[in-house]
Amino acid sequence: MKRLFSLMMALIMVLSVGITAFADETADQVTHGTITITNATKDQTYTVYKIFDATYDATADSVSYSITKDNQFYSALFNDDGTAVEANRFFVYNTNTGSVIKAEGVNDAELITYLEKLINEGSYTPAADPQTLAADSEESDIVFTGLPYGYYVIQSTLGATVTINSNTPDVSVIDKNQIPGTEFDKFIQDGVDENGDPIWVKSNSAFINETVTYKIELLTTNYDGDKQIKYYQIHDTKGEGIWADFDSFKVYVGGVELERGYYICRGDASLNTEGWEYFGDWTGVDKDPDNAQWYFVHISEDEYRFTIPWLDSYELNEEKLSLDFDEDAQSLYDSPSVIEIVYDAYIEYNATIGGNSHNDNLFNEASASWVSENETGNTETETVETYVYGIGILKDDIATGTNLAGAEFRLYKDAGCTEPVYVIPTDIEGVYMVDINPFEETDENMETPRKIYAAYLDEYLDGKLQDNLVVSQVNGKIVILGLEAGTYYLKETKAPDGYNSLTQPVEIIAGEGTKPFSVFADGNGNVADIQATDGVHTENIYNITSTVVHNSKGVELPSTGGAGTMMLITAGTIVAMAFAVLLITHKKMSIYQD
């Protein structure tokens, strides 16, 4: 994962001030103050360095600065003799009084960079260990107490940046160098690891009608610079081959689910589906839009956004489609925190087959934005893609090359042909589509393969719930669309009449070596064994993995029958009868002679 921030982040605060206190009733007055860092970045450590001493006049509300030779930064700023070092053109030192003032015409940003470099390079001799406090994950503020009046730099473990502020007795400082949106990404799930945890990637492959899962992540802060963030938005756009399952939306901040969502239809009223008004679990909470923890804004069929309020005390203005906040509204979440949105989608029947670019309809892209005091920030767009493939075979006579109709195959995932891949016929003969999860309940508006090709199901299934049978047509071709990338096996269960069946399944790898595969069909889906349009048939081109499967004719076996058989039988019969007569006569003669 990237570093939390691309810039060094720290809070430097100027001016520590103080309260008047007495060591005891007779001691000299000692002034100390506090520095409070509000909205501190959790799990980071803050360290204060005093650059100059300060004297504060409460009556005049004014401050003056000075430095002594034993100050840890004295030599680094003014050499040992009090003359400014070459790099220091920012401060003027009075060797008589020890006072320090900012030089005329100094650019504050350059001064900040100079002080930051001074500390980061260690160009000083520490007089004492600097005071360090850690911001824990439970409290948003940390407070440095007992600090003598002075001009202070505050550095965090994320780096150091200097901020100049006016001096007051007790100073409260916003961690104003927080930068939202430095980490944003969108992922799609590709299986699970050995522990059963999701594997998140930028692209995957899936079957048509299969469920895929998306995840969006955004690293958030409570401020953009010194401006308090009011709300974050996640903008999401999907391709036409994807159907988002709105009921599956899950929104998390800092690992905790925001259970209450509210649906808003913008523009096209036909999108306002009944039952989508309230998302999640509203148990024990009035179903009021102002009680929602996030809002889902449906902009168009393929475009929507999630809005997450970041301050408390907000109201939804549905007419203006905006959120109104109280002036004293406070941040709701730790800084930084991660927004995570997870939801499911289905691959629709019209998914691009064998696509290889963002122009296909199986992409999903997202970006994030935020609003703070009428200013808006945003991230780059992140895109994920799903790939769907197909396979095809051409069945022909190995001797003549004639295309063969009537070859029956069954499709399997494994070489042992025990794991069937079910299909249904489409509106073109010999072209089939995968039948994954056909009985899973989906939105009634979703166009599933079974819904689109319902007219062809009854005859094909013949009373069965599913089947994996595919049959070559007059063109000798079979096309199967909607497959996940991988190896498949086509087992021939019936060869064309007069041909021998294959003894081994045909192995084919979907997604490997894809190329155009043409099927010519008329307006009714009847195919023809032609290679060019003829005014009746048009070419349907599929970008799929294909192969040619040869069949050989059966060889005629030897026969014991043949021409002249009856003549041989007749002659044999005559010979047998003559032999019988001779035998009987011979026996009679023998009797008489005896």
Explained architecture:
With 594 residues, the protein is mainly beta. It is built from five helices and 40 strands. It folds into three domains: 19-174, no CATH class; 184-387, Sandwich (Immunoglobulin-like); 389-551, Immunoglobulin-like (Sandwich), CATH 2.60.40.10. Strand 1 (19-22) and strand 2 (29-38) form a beta hairpin.
Protein topology:
Blueprint: E1 19-22, E2 29-38, E3 45-57, E4 62-66, H1 74-78, E5 91-93, E6 99-102, H2 108-120, E7 131-134, E8 142-148, E9 150-156, E10 171-174, E11 184-192, E12 198-201, E13 203-205, E14 211-220, E15 223-224, E16 227-228, E17 231-238, E18 242-253, E19 256-257, E20 260-265, E21 278-280, E22 294-300, E23 303-309, E24 314-317, E25 322-325, E26 337-347, E27 363-372, E28 375-378, E29 382-387, E30 389-397, E31 408-412, E32 423-425, E33 431-434, H3 449-452, H4 457-461, E34 469-471, E35 477-483, E36 486-494, E37 506-510, E38 515-521, E39 527-528, E40 538-551, H5 565-593
Parallel strand pairs: 2-10, 13-29, 20-22, 30-40, 33-35
Antiparallel strand pairs: 1-2, 2-8, 3-4, 3-7, 3-9, 4-6, 5-6, 11-12, 11-14, 14-26, 15-16, 17-23, 17-27, 18-19, 18-26, 20-21, 22-23, 24-25, 27-28, 27-29, 30-35, 31-34, 31-36, 32-33, 36-37, 38-39, 38-40
Outline:
The chain has 594 residues and is mostly beta strands. Helix content is 9%, strand content 41%.
Write out key terms for the chains shown.
594 residues; Immunoglobulin-like; seven-stranded mixed sheet; 5 helices; elongated; disordered N terminus; disordered C terminus
